[in-house]
């Protein structure tokens, strides 16, 4: 798939070639998508969840290294960063690291955040936020990031959530007030997406999707047809790239890593797919962003599409 702008066509995007693209900003090599039609972002972005710590119960990461990773990401052409106020560990918060690293922000940088439930220090979810708590959460993100508006705010659902019309309406009102530019939904069912779209435009969906987690494949296709960004969380399944024979075979053919092949597979899955791999390692950052240049062949894609488990 040549790096092009997302068009929202329902035509199958699985037309990658094995040719690599050279670019001074490697993150741009996979093309770009216009969030909401007016904010172009490179399809290779960055997720900030791993900056404070690798796991909720693990040791905190060095904040200076997190700041260096963020600055290097922008140097590599990343202009879409995904965060949340509940990305924290002990006294280290992703939003604070983003502000310290990048404020004043580049004009083309889109920072997306999520609100909905909060999290306890052990990582467990609090109850879903009510409208007043959602307003407070938006203002918290504004303060922590040092911004007068937020580029993209997702309403993050929990699996136990029912309809979220009142909560999404609260975010829609904040959008009308100018505090939010665009709205999205995260961890949402097709029904919750449809309900939200009745209230205000939804420009992005952040749900799980990876070679071994394809429950939302129909939603991926729906978003592509409607030119809605699909932003998969846990692109490696939540525990690093899976150790699968098929991934290793494809990676060996390209002189790449399984993680890079996984990201290339995601980008080939839909023209509106936006990858946000996260890391606190400068080396892993370079590796992830380089995957924007990787072009998988039809044979590669067929082999990866057939993945069914650890013996694949």
Automatic annotation (TrEMBL):
It holds the Pfam family Aldo_ket_red. CDD domains: AKR_AKR13B1. The keyword Iron-sulfur does not apply. Residues 1-41 are annotated as: Disordered. Residues 1-30 have a biased composition (Low complexity). InterPro entries: AKR, Aldo-Keto_reductase, NAD(P)_OxRdtase_dom_sf, NADP_OxRdtase_dom. Residues 43-307 form the NADP-dependent oxidoreductase domain. Keywords: Oxidoreductase. It comes from the Bacteria. NCBIfam families: PRK10376.1. This is Oxidoreductase.
